[in-house]
Structure prediction request, 266 residues.
Amino acid sequence: MSAILLILFNGVTDKLIPLFAVGAFLAFTLSQAGMVVHWLRSKDRGARLSMMINGLGALATGVTFLIVIVTKFTEGAWLVVIVMPGLYLLMYSIRRHYDMIAGEVAISGRLTLQTPSDILAIVPVETPNALVQKALQIAFGFSRRVQILHIKQENKQRDFVSEWNGHVRASIKEAGLPEPELVILESPYRRVVSPILDHIWKLERENPDKTVVVLIPQLVEARWYYRFLHNQRETSLRNELLLKGENRILVVNVPWQIEKHAAAPK
Prediction:
């Protein structure tokens, strides 16, 4: 804001003195008026005298503020006339937003808790790896009903079913865990996020009495300049679920921190 003001006034700081004067006297007026309100509510002895002193101060600085606005309007005071109402409207709209949110989430009386609904856990998987292993472990902690969702894209030569049977299925049986439901969806246009979302919306409609938990594995890079190279689809999927999903859809991020796991002894 300071840089913008200097540019608008061609770097001539003398032209900013009227703007400073307006801001200073406005602050004095508001603080004195605030003290008047304070003494009005106070029951202290001498509050009336204090209120009169502060009221006189508010009147003096308020008159000075108006004089500066009128006499220095073309020299920079006009900016305050424009900016102050705009700032007030901005802060008022923010306050209204907070009040609206508070009213929506408020409850009257005691909390109403019900028996937890069954949970359906969904893990989108591109290829079996360490992230999927961690996501599966967490998914089985949520529910015994886990669904593995894979999007098969055209021109992809990898056989996901063979990889799943070879690297994951036997481990699940050895752990005594129920075998997840394997869902493979075709995506002829190489889209990934849209088919996943369509499937989740369908599951939500078909299971109105269940909570749907979507576990999204994602890489966590320690260096910021690597973060642009990963998790684009995961971020898009999470945002869509949060923005368009109903309250029965939960999103769980399953992080895998690159640096820590890379440095760990094998």
User: Anything to note?
Assistant: The chain is about 55% helix and 15% strand. The chain has a mean pLDDT of 87. The first strand starts at residue 118 and ends at 124.
